[in-house]
Design a protein that fits this description.
Length: 201
């Protein structure tokens, strides 16, 4: 229903402030889907489709905001939450999970910098320092690349100690995450969003 989502948002924008639509319509809808996903009544394809529908709604909202309808020069403090850097670690070329996390975080109003896959620890740290980012999401889908994740966390601790690190991916467990020094382990994309939301409270 992504087309309809865009059309309905455009209609709502005629009489409702853009950020009101985000707060009262889009985020509650995403929450319902997220809870359904956690309760296993909604599955990954539906989660992705609803994220796409929300994305279409956000496109209309962003366009309205940049028209200067709200805030100064289209910027509004409450519109964008903190910046999050995400990457699949060195040696790992899987990015489906990471892309889902990116999509959902953006839909929840976070500014996401996606460094892609097979990313060197130094590149991740450099970007965190450049943006003074408070949160990094690291993904690994192969056991062989978990050491690269650990190496990235060590470097972040040394050079960007203020930054929280959340990790996820098929091979990870809470135990593994604790062992490599991560701040948070998310077993799915919605958990990553919940953690990012907690941090911005």
């Amino acid at each position: 229903l992504k087309e309809q989502a865009g059309e309905l948002t455009a209609k709502l924008l005629e009489e409702t402030a853009p950020l009101e639509i985000v707060q009262n319509e889009v985020i509650p809808a995403l929450d319902i889907v997220g809870k359904g996903y956690e309760a296993k009544t909604v599955y990954l394809p539906q989660l992705l489709m609803s994220a796409e529908a929300a994305k279409r709604a956000f496109e209309k909202i962003k366009a309205a905001l940049s028209d200067g309808t709200d805030g100064i020069d289209g910027t509004d403090e409450s519109a964008a939450k903190c910046s999050v850097i995400i990457a699949t670690v060195k040696g790992d070329i899987h990015d489906i999970g990471k892309n889902i996390v990116k999509l959902l975080l953006e839909n929840y109003g976070f500014t996401v910098t996606d460094l892609g896959r097979d990313v060197l620890p130094e590149t991740i740290v450099e970007e965190v320092k450049k943006q003074n980012a408070p949160l990094v999401g690291l993904s690994a889908l192969m056991t062989t690349t978990v050491p690269a994740m650990e190496e990235t966390i060590k470097l972040l601790r040394a050079e960007a100690p203020w930054c929280k690190v959340m990790v996820g991916g098929a091979v990870l467990t809470q135990e593994y995450a604790d062992k490599i020094g991560a701040d948070y382990y998310g077993k799915d994309a919605m958990e990553a969003v919940r953690y990012a939301e907690e941090l911005t409270k």
